[in-house]
Write a structure and sequence with these properties.
The structure is a single chain. This protein has two domains: 43 residues, no CATH class; 43 residues, no CATH class. The protein has two helices and two strands. It has a two-stranded antiparallel ribbon. The longest helix is centred in the N-terminal third of the chain and has 11 residues. It comes from Actinacidiphila glaucinigra. It holds the Pfam family RibD_C. This is RibD C-terminal domain-containing protein.
Length: 87
């Protein structure tokens, strides 16, 4: 999928009046903006289990009630490692 998102980006930029724009979507949507050099940052959110739908990350469901505190964030290349306490 390739779409020219430049007109949409121009409209979003005008509406934002100097504020940040938060683009929420999947890889195809992000790719369309990246193809035209329109992304400044990429923020990836990982919450497949706590949202209650979609493919579970682990074989059993770990609800957000069992994930107590985010104790570590580490980047190794393109990988992000998030460490939560579960007790």
């Amino acid at each position: 999928m390739r779409h020219d998102v430049r007109p949409v980006h121009e409209a979003m930029t005008a509406a934002a009046r100097g504020r940040d724009i938060w683009l929420v979507g999947g890889g195809e949507l992000v790719g369309c903006f990246a193809d035209h050099g329109l992304l400044d940052d990429l923020v990836l959110g990982v919450a497949p289990v706590t949202l209650g739908a979609g493919a579970p990350l682990l074989p059993r469901r770990l609800t957000s009630a069992r994930l107590h505190a985010l104790t570590g964030v580490e980047q190794v290349g393109q990988f992000a490692y998030l460490t939560y306490t579960t007790r």
